[in-house]
Amino acid sequence: MIEVEVHNSLRTFLRSSGEPYWPHHLTMARLVARALRLGRSALMQTGIAPGGSHGRYRLSYLMPVLMWPEPAILVAREDVRQRLLMVEIPQLQQWIKTPKAIRTGDHWPYDGFQGLLITSPEAWLADRLEQGNRFQTGVPTVIDGVDDLETWAHQQLTAGIQPADWNELMLACPHRADAIRNARVRLTRAFFQHPVNPYECNLLDAPEQEILRRLFLSLQKSPTPAGYGNAQAIEPSPSIADFSSLPAAWRNFWQRWQTEGQLSWAEIERRQGQFTLYCGPVEVASALSKIWPQQPVVLIGGNVDLETEATVYRQRVGLPEMTCLKFSPDRQNELIHLYLPDRLPLPNTPQFQDALIQEIRTLLNASALAGGLTVVLVGDVPLKAQVGAVLAAEFGSRVQVEKTCLDGNGILVTGWEFWRQHQGVLPAPQLLAIATLPIPSLENPLVAGRVAYYKQQRLDWFRLYLLPVALSELQRAIMPVRERQGVVALLDTRVLHRSYGHQVLAALSPLARIDYLDASLFAQPNY
User: Fold this and answer.
1) Bridge partners, 339 (sequence order)
2) How far apart are CA 235 and CA 231, in angstroms?
3) Element (H, E) at 331
4) Do 117 and 73 contact (CB within 8 A), yes or no?
5) DSSP 514
6) Nearest Cα to 342, choosing from 507, 512, 490, 518?
7) How far apart (Å, rounded) are the C-alpha atoms in residues 504 and 436?
8) What is the pLDDT of residue 482?
9) Which candidate, 439, 436, 401, 423, places its Cα nearest to that of 476?
10) How many CA atoms lie within 13 A of 451 on its CB side?
11) What are phi and psi of 347, to 5 degrees?
């Protein structure tokens, strides 16, 4: 059987090549081979965040995919694809007796192709979600990095109207230029009357949606002397077919806007006096659930769910019952030291900011002798700027706010998104100080809109949305520290006083809890 062949080939390769240690290589390789042979879908959690350790686990799915005698598809983001093509695949091909053809692209190469097609999440999801035929159905598909699957799907299902699209619409519909210009002016005035918020976006309220609706009604009509905004001319909402002659961006937006379960919002650029309209789904499970029966899939992620069966994750991405596997981190090599002080004020109290800055100052002084990078993670945008300013006044140019050019003993003050995007190219920090848990803020209009939808559906919005997002973000953020066995300081005492605290600690495991700071913890980086 292919499972035995894969096991023996990978074991020999690992013994000879000196690849980075990962204790689950052979187990995962056999399970991927079994999924290919039986045509059964599977979900595997490696415990390694996307990009961590250059994807040590990837050898475990590459060997069975390359040895599989039938065609297969591999879906991975751009940086992963480049590493696979330049490093991992050439190494493995030397050990495989029957080399497999490798192709890259956004469509199936040709009828009868029996090799491996490597493609992007954007191309594969766009084809599957739009019921296209650029990829053959029934072909086993391995998707790497499904921690980001929900984000990928949401991007594919979101339509946008950029500032330049308004000019394109006026060129396409010159007989409605006045109506288009009038709608744009009225929307601009309405958006800029919203209070400023750190997220620079707002949900479309009823008057703004009415402006758009009237615009689309105007575009539907044939040229007549009637002016835009005539109340007597209002008709029932037009169909999608009525806009076949409009530019693609406007057709896509209208199609999204007319679909149930959508959020409409505007991103506002106040300095430029411009805005961008978006319309996207509140949840992606209903759309994704339609693509899984089209082919067997092996979904591979880092930590997508605390439970092996990944019940919550499967619900969020519409996955049916399938084989699920979760590999535990290696306690000997991936343990972190967790500093969790219990006397700090709660984040929603006025005393929190001063206490937080004092605690961070203590942490920096304790780790000063060791050198190396220190990262301070602050999700709240105004608080991040204040922490950066206070620390810069005391520690000088060592402190940078969301910059990648850092000294060897630099202090990076950053938000979660910046750290997620750049942690793969920055040195592993000796200390990661987390101000608050990355629970999405209800002050963010998009978060508030999604929570409102969950409430309307009578769903547990905290358990199904806010908490899973926070735990996933937290696990990815600490991965570089885990590989170094460094110190994570979690300064959010909700972990100790809220019922979900035990889930947070489970997500951080394996860990060694420390109650005080000792310079010896930072003195000898442990790899």
Assistant:
1) 489, 514
2) 9
3) helix 331-334
4) yes
5) E
6) 490
7) 12
8) 87
9) 423
10) 15
11) -60, -25
Residue with the two structure tokens 């995007």: 421
The whole-angstrom separation of Cα 206 and Cα 211 is: 9
DSSP secondary structure string, 191-257?
A: HHTSPP-TT-EEE--HHHHHHHHHHHHHHHSPP-SPPTT-GGG--SPPPGGGGTTS-HHHHHHHHHH
pLDDT at position 135: 95
Instruction: Say what the pLDDT of residue 161 is.
Output: 97
Would you state the structure tokens that stand for residue 399, as one six-digit string? 């402190």
Does residue 338 contact residue 513 with C-beta atoms inside 8 Å?
Answer: yes
pLDDT confidence of residue 328:
85
Task: Give residue 437's Cα distance to chain centre.
Answer: 17
Pairing, β 297-301 against β 42-45: parallel
What one-character DSSP code corresponds to residue 349?
S
pLDDT of residue 228: 40
- The pLDDT, as a whole number, for residue 54 is 59
Distance CA(382)–CA(401), nearest Å, equals 12
Tens digit of each residue's pLDDT (9 = 90 or more) over 435-467:
999 999 999 999 999 999 999 999 999 999 999
406, two tokens: 């850092």
pLDDT at 71: 96
Peptide bond just before 510 cis, omega within 30 deg: yes
Looking at the whole model, is its pTM more than 0.85? Answer: yes
pLDDT at 339: 95
Q: What share of residues in the chain are helix, strand, coil (percent, to 5)?
A: 50, 15, 40
DSSP 136-176: -TT--EEEE-GGGHHHHHHHHT-EEE-HHHHHHHHHH-GGG
Tokens read off for 514: 């420390």
Q: Kindly give the parts of the chain with pLDDT less than 70.
A: 19-20, 50-54, 221-242, 519-527
Q: How far apart are CA 300 and CA 486, in angstroms?
A: 26
Q: Which amino acid appears at position 446 of this protein? A: L
pLDDT of 519:
66
Instruction: Provide the residue type at 501 as one letter.
Output: G
Q: In this structure, what token pair is assigned to residue 93?
A: 């091909």
- CA–CA dist 304, 44 (Å, integer): 9
